[in-house]
Write a structure and sequence with these properties.
30% of the residues are buried. The protein is built from 11 helices and 9 strands. The chain starts with 12 loop residues before the first helix and ends with a helix. By secondary structure, it is α+β, with helices and mostly antiparallel strands. The N terminus is likely disordered. A hairpin with a 3-residue loop joins β2 and β3. The protein has a 4-stranded antiparallel β-sheet with strand order 4-5-1-6, sandwiched between helices. 43% of the residues lie in helices and 15% in strands.
Length: 279
């Protein structure tokens, strides 16, 4: 490992190769342990699975969990406590390699070398997996409980909140505003030893009748009916991106336009209809 050979905290190529190798060894062990409603940076899972999990809990006129703790962690990748993370890894064979990457430091333009006392390498191949390891146990800390026997094993216990997490964004669905406040207090205490804290500007407790944005979607109940649709902020970003792209493509042939815009249209909900507005 080339310790300290970083610029803007992005690992050099040889370290990125080693990190990919270690990640491939670390991931299977933790995939067998990770919580069922954790969706970020996990193989075979994505943001639409997280949205589907929220829908399954909150859809229908008889849904009980109608309050949400919509939470965001402040600079999670930059603040993970090294000692707590390494302790979570236990006797993993490449633990010393991971320690070296965490402690390697960074080179800052005009400032020289700076040590890293917290956080994971930005741009590091293994960093997303390490974030999931650091946040493992969040469901239990939030008070989520599952049935462990019988035909309904794996379902959440009646009265229990439901936590849905995607990387450092999370939603905890609760039965009451009071329960949501209690969950927030418990999670704040659980996050502190890990070096993490809520971003209070982006964290709120909200009734589903008011709605909230999560992963580019707006989730809201209208007269006991749950609707999930692209958020206004996501639609605005898409419009701006398509407008900028379209301006750059003026005068080019149809093949060039289609080639440039197709990834944007395929990857964004409703993009095809918006293209007409910005062309």
């Amino acid at each position: 490992m080339q310790e300290g050979q970083y610029e803007s905290s992005v690992p050099v190529l040889i370290d990125r190769c080693h990190q990919a190798r270690v990640k491939n060894a670390l991931e299977p062990e933790w995939e067998a342990r990770f919580e069922p409603r954790s969706y970020g940076f996990r193989p075979g899972r994505g943001c639409h699975d997280a949205i589907a999990a929220i829908y399954n809990v909150c859809a229908g006129p008889l849904a009980q969990r109608v309050w949400a703790l919509d939470a965001d962690l402040a600079a999670a990748f930059d603040r993970i406590d090294h000692d707590h993370l390494l302790a979570s890894l236990g006797s993993f064979p490449a633990r010393d390699l991971i320690r070296g990457w965490l402690k390697a430091g960074v080179f800052k333009a005009g400032k020289g070398f700076a040590p890293t006392v917290e956080g994971t390498p930005q741009g590091g191949v293994i960093s997303p997996c390490l974030l999931n390891v650091a946040l493992h146990g969040l469901e239990e800390a939030a008070g989520v409980r599952y049935k462990t026997s019988g035909t309904h094993a794996g379902e959440t216990v009646t009265g229990s909140p439901v936590a849905v997490r995607y990387a450092d964004d999370m939603v905890v669905l609760c039965h009451s505003q009071e329960q949501a406040g209690q969950v927030k207090a418990r999670l704040a205490g659980w996050l502190a030893p890990r070096g993490l804290a809520f971003n209070e500007d982006k964290t709120k407790i909200v009734h589903l009748g008011e709605g909230f944005d999560f992963l580019g979607f707006n989730i809201r109940r209208y007269h006991r009916k749950l609707l999930i649709k692209p958020s206004k902020a996501a639609v605005k970003r898409l419009r701006e991106r398509l407008a900028a792209q379209t301006r750059k493509l003026r005068g080019l042939n149809a093949v060039a336009v289609i080639t440039a815009l197709s990834p944007v249209i395929r990857g964004s909900p409703g993009a095809a209809s918006l293209l007409r507005d910005v062309a």
